[in-house]
Amino acid sequence: MAEENKGTPIPGEEDPEKAPDGSSEGEEAQEGGETPDAELEARAKRMGWHGKEDYNGPEDRFVDAKTFIEKSETELPITRERLRRLDKRVAKQDKVIKEFGEFHAGVEARAYEKALTDIRREKRDAANAEDMEKYDDLAKQEVELEKTAPKGGPMAGESPPPEITDWANSTPWFKTPDRPGGNTGMTNFAIAHHGELLVEKPGLTIEENLEEVTSEVKRRFPEKFANPKRGDAASVEGTSGTKPPAKGGRSYGDLPADAKAACDSFIAEKLMTKAEYLKQYKWE
């Protein structure tokens, strides 16, 4: 009988037991979860997104939660990878600069020690000759020179890897603190090429890197590795031929093609000037 007392609903009125979308209140309570949009926004906020009510940036830069998530999942990893590669490249370049400084710090220190030794020897000579005016002048030079003493001494800081030290010591043309008479041009070229390989071929071991450096130096400076006996034979055979060119003109235009390429490379790397290269180049 209770069912009959309920009556027929008046058209346009809502059924008190039904939700506006036609579902019952019980069904909505059972679902009890957030809507898809709310879940998306909650996820975006965990990733750093701010809704319009909390956003303080330029209005035209605002994106909804869905767009923010899509950009974060696609663009952010690419940016991170680019930054990782850039950091790696900078680290390798720093390593090249460090090695260059380590190899040549000793040369600078040896030059300082030689100048200091020369001054002190001249001071003793002046004292023995009782030339006090010259002695006082040399004493002033010694004080000024000591102000320019290399900080930390030769090879300051961490030592280079043993593979590099062994290679440098066993390479007769490479200029080191113990071999200041090495070829400056070839040494600078080797250091620059070593640095290029660190960036362009990071997978090489130190030994493989140095092997390529040696090969490239020989390719760029073939005249430094020519067989002297072969040259003597050629000179004997050519005695009846044309006479050798004069050694007078020593300009950039007189350099062979490979030497010009090396000179240009050193200038580009700011390792030396053209005048310095021409002065140190071993003319035949």
Describe the protein's topology.
Elements: H1 2-5, H2 25-31, H3 36-46, H4 65-128, H5 132-146, H6 162-170, H7 184-200, H8 206-220, H9 228-237, H10 257-268, H11 274-280
Helix pairs in contact: 3-4, 4-5, 4-7, 7-8, 7-10
Walk me through what this model shows.
- With 284 residues, this protein is mainly α.
- The protein is built from 11 helices and no strands.
- Residues 24-30, 153-157 and 231-248 have low confidence and may be disordered.
Distance between the termini: 126 Å
Helix content: 55-70%
Q: Write down how many β-strands occur, each being a DSSP E stretch of 2 or more residues.
A: 0
* Helical/strand content category: mainly alpha
What kind of assembly state do the chains in view correspond to? single chain
Give the C-alpha Rg. Answer: 39 Å
Overall geometry comes to elongated
Mean pLDDT: 72
Strand content range: under 5%
Write the H/E string, N to C.
Answer: HHHHHHHHHHH
Residue ranges: pLDDT <50 for 5 or more in a row?
24-30, 153-157, 231-248
State the helix count: 11
Biggest sheet overview: none
Short description:
By secondary structure, the chain is an all-alpha fold.
Keywords:
mainly alpha, coiled coil
